[in-house]
Amino acid sequence: LLGQILDHWFESEPLKATLATDAVIGAMASPRTPGSGYVLLHHVMGELEGRRGAWGYVAGGMGALSQAIAQAATARGAHIFTEKAVCHVLLGRDGEAQGVMLQDGTEVRSKLVLSNASPQITFLELIPQEQLPKDFVQRIRQVDTRSPVTKINVAVDRLPSFLAAPNARDGQPLPHHQCSIHLNCEGTQLLHQAFTEATQGHPSSRPMIELCIPSALDPGLAPAGCHVVSLFTQYTPSTLAGGRSWDEQARNAYADKVFDCIEDYAPGFKASVIGRDVLTPPDLERIFGLPGGNIFHGGMSLDQLYFARPAPCYSGYRSPIPGLYLCGSGAHPGGGVMGAAGRNAAQVAIKDFRHL
Hints:
Elements: H1 2-9, H2 13-24, H3 36-44, E1 47-48, E2 51-52, H4 63-74, E3 86-91, E4 97-102, E5 107-109, E6 113-115, H5 119-124, H6 134-142, E7 150-156, E8 181-183, H7 188-199, E9 208-212, E10 227-234, H8 248-265, H9 269-272, E11 273-279, H10 281-288, E12 324-326, H11 340-353
Parallel strand pairs: 6-12
Antiparallel strand pairs: 1-2, 3-4, 4-5, 7-10, 7-11, 8-9, 9-10
Helix pairs in contact: 1-2, 2-3, 2-7
Organism: Picathartes gymnocephalus (White-necked rockfowl)
GO molecular function: oxidoreductase activity
Pfam families: Amino_oxidase (PF01593)
């Protein structure tokens, strides 16, 4: 249990709760959930520019990272096609992958196919079920994809000024504006209560909020004097109590609740808002193909990690379909902006390709 680990090392309840957020981020779990300690480990492993456990902003926004990868690939001869939905994987007589069929009818032939889509989309939608082992299909269907995350992107006409650290007169970003700001994290009990409400189908009355202001470090993201604020919030259930879906009213009611909370810490925040984009778990699934809205393509619980990710005996990136590889967050070692699954899958695919 994460709570036991934090209690052993720390006394300050706000510090324990702030550290606990990285143990439940993207997970329908509380600090009291068995195995939650691993998710914290997952978020602090690795390093950035020699600093262990460090995280950073991408200059130009997260899309700039995708562009950098794309440019590196095209410089080495890759051809990239966007807005071209894949209909299904093409299979040969012996059930091996031979390319993909696009929705517009175009066939793209290849000796190998690597899928960065979720295991659910890859194996339940793009492959005929009769071509896969029944126990494998059942395992993929049983993957826990519950997600508590609602992402809110906000445009503001001035920098938030927090009661705990008011802005300078010139309105320029201070050090804390350039960090991850955690709200409603005064104690781990608050996180557990927020989780409990969501398990009963109710959006948290006092949501866990991780607030970032990337434009404080990268001014080009917003017009002069204005800023973009990224809110990573939980807990919100995919389906509301009584089987209700997330309509516009429910979406706005939750966002208003989040903004009311921020207003308590930074008076004037609500008046500074120019626009907002609210993405609930069903929105994240519909727009980005995240199963259940889960940013990791499946829970990072111990029963869905290591040799069991995405299914027992298939953690080595190869799939039951010869020539088809899984290289996204649903593969070992799981989610996060680190590229480990893709790098590992590429090495396995290259090794196999040499023998074709």
